[in-house]
Design brief:
heterodimer; A: alpha+beta; Immunoglobulin-like; three-stranded antiparallel β-sheet; B: 161 residues; four-stranded antiparallel β-sheet; two-stranded antiparallel ribbon
Chain lengths: 131, 161
């Protein structure tokens, strides 16, 4: 009888041990996956790239930028494409929002007349002389 | 004895898992907190923009000595960005042999000192600077242009509200 009890206890301990290990690896995988999707880094990169393009450009010029990877992230977050990049003329800054809430803004020092149009996977940046 | 050894092993195993988890979390936090630093590039762009705007085919533009000369209008820069507490700094000096004939500085003046410190010590939160020297012709004489541009822009998160 005693021997039978001992045999029954052993698999339960092993199962608990295995379940805890499984839980650990699942939690770690979820954490790593969600960290890899950090929009903040992408928002920062795109905003800074656009600000540098504007500051470096000599008017009048049209610069086209491939933003397909940013569109993919925005679509995952249900953010409309036309709302990904905005220009804040008062602050003279570029605002990038890859999710519905929050975003990242970066100032440019050029006083050119800048406008932005998204066309499919491209972002067209029109840099004209200020009238 | 065997059971005790098993228990000891499982405790040790969970300690190992905790160390692995800690390592992954620290690694991910370091990765996600890393910022794309373009301050130095920005300072270089600002300095080059000023050079392009003031020098034309090796000649310093004469408008520079006009009494109503405005660097913002002349070089197409936004004056608001260079207001008090700005993230940018710009200093232009023009020397005719040893005499200073023109000097203008805009933006955050404390960056000038910070730039000198930054030359000697690597400080992460300090502005990044770009100092350029150019020789140009002005009234048939050689003049020396020294341009110091600095940027300490970090950018900002847009508030959720």
């Amino acid at each position: 009888m005693n021997k039978k009890n001992k045999k029954a206890k052993l698999p339960l301990e092993t199962i608990i041990f295995l379940v805890l290990n499984l839980v650990f690896f699942v939690v770690m995988l979820i954490f790593a996956y969600s960290s890899g999707n950090r929009e903040f880094v992408y928002e920062q990169t795109l905003a800074k790239e656009i600000a540098l393009i504007i500051d470096n450009a000599k008017p009048t010029i049209i610069v086209s930028l491939d933003i397909s990877k940013y569109i993919e992230i925005a679509e995952k977050n249900k953010q409309p494409i036309e709302k990904i990049v905005k220009l804040n003329k008062e602050e003279n800054s570029v605002e990038v929002n890859l999710k519905q809430k929050g975003g990242y803004s970066y100032q440019y020092f050029s006083d050119s007349n800048v406008s932005i149009v998204s066309e499919k996977n491209l972002l067209l940046i029109y840099i004209k002389e200020k009238k | 004895m065997n059971k005790q050894a098993d228990k000891l092993l499982s405790v040790w195993w969970f300690f190992v898992l905790a160390v692995i988890a800690g390592g992954i979390v620290i690694g991910v936090l370091i990765y996600s907190s890393a910022e794309v630093n373009i301050k130095e590039v920005e300072a270089n762009v600002l300095a080059e923009r000023i050079i392009d705007c003031l020098i034309d085919n090796g000649y310093l533009k004469e408008n520079i000595l006009d009494t109503n000369f405005n660097i913002f209008d002349f070089c197409n820069l936004n004056s608001k960005v260079f207001e008090k507490g700005s993230n940018f700094y710009l200093n232009i000096s023009v020397y005719d042999s040893e005499n200073l004939i023109f000097n203008v500085s805009k933006g955050n003046p404390s960056f000038e000192k910070d730039c000198k410190i930054q030359e000697k010590v690597e400080a992460e939160k300090f502005p990044r600077c770009s100092e350029n020297q150019e020789i140009a012709l002005f009234n048939d004489k050689n003049v020396r242009l020294i341009i110091l541009a600095a940027s300490n822009q970090k950018g900002g998160k847009i508030s959720v509200i």
